[in-house]
Amino acid sequence: MTVLPVINLEDALGGNEEKVADEISRACTEVGFFIVRGHGIDRKVFDDAYELSLGFFGRPAAEKNALPMRTSTARGDNDYSPYGYSALLSENAYAYTGKQGMPADYVEKFSAGRLVLDDAEDLPFPADAAGSALRAALKAYFAACETVSARVTELLTIALELPRDFFATRTDRSNDSLRSQYYPGVQREFLNDQGMGEHTDGTLITLLTEDGPGLQLRDLSGNWIDVDVPERDHFIVNIGDLMARWSNDEYVSTPHRVRLVDRPRQSIVFFKLANDDAVIEAFPKFTRERPAKYEPIRYETFSLQKMDALFGREARS
């Protein structure tokens, strides 16, 4: 098991922001993963989301399958923010990186995007008291993740020598999403122990919590390293392809995967993205001594390329 850098956000109080910002930036450069604690989010927010998600995953298959994941909303906007349920083997993380013909993932997921913050939205939750409680729990969890991701990216602007509101003004309308996930323990009838195939995220940053082992990251030598945290209210944060591109690849979008273990595992993952009209152009700090590797691109175009690969859709020109 590897020891990831631990960032205590409480340490950024009292005039120590620059030190913490440098710690985050160094982690982004060296490993692309770090752990965040001291975020001030009530433990109950995590416990409610986990316990009510577990109750949902324990429902009969017919009830869950009646709420299939959809990638658009009734009013037609937010086209690629997922909502609803995905069964075992219904998704393939390899596809997200453009690899075809690879095995699918042994994981169940229940997804919610930014619209979960609006109680008036018609979203695919169970139409009973437990479903209402699950919706409220994921709403609170989503809001907590927005708060933590905003603080982490605000601190990064210090290390990146950017205006303090650089990320805030480019992510305030982003189609962020979360996925509550259930991995069964290894079973004899399974073809392999692939909970989720090797991939990188397409995000600005990703916030993950978990209640047990299974997550692995690939180090620079190509070795798979186990990653775990002692408590479900510790965030494992990783850099995504979006942040890597924005940083001219100075920040590392690290491949990772999930292996099934001898007991079930839950996790909740939050994907922080960017506004569709945000222009992704290498930060000046990382183009002073070498040219930009990529042409500027609107986030909407970048995102569509990623999502078309994930959902097996024909690429758009």
Automatic annotation (TrEMBL):
Pfam families documented for this protein: 2OG-FeII_Oxy, DIOX_N
InterPro entries: DIOX_N, IPNS-like_FE2OG_OXY, IPNS-like_sf, Iron_ascorbate_oxido_reductase, Oxoglu/Fe-dep_dioxygenase_dom
Similarity field: Belongs to the iron/ascorbate-dependent oxidoreductase family.
Species annotation: Streptomyces roseoverticillatus
Pathway: Antibiotic biosynthesis
Domain Fe2OG dioxygenase: 174-274
Name of this chain's protein: 2OG-Fe(II) oxygenase family protein
Source species taxonomy: Bacteria, Bacillati, Actinomycetota, Actinomycetes, Kitasatosporales
Keyword list, A-Z: Antibiotic biosynthesis, Iron, Metal-binding, Oxidoreductase
Keyword Glycoprotein found: no
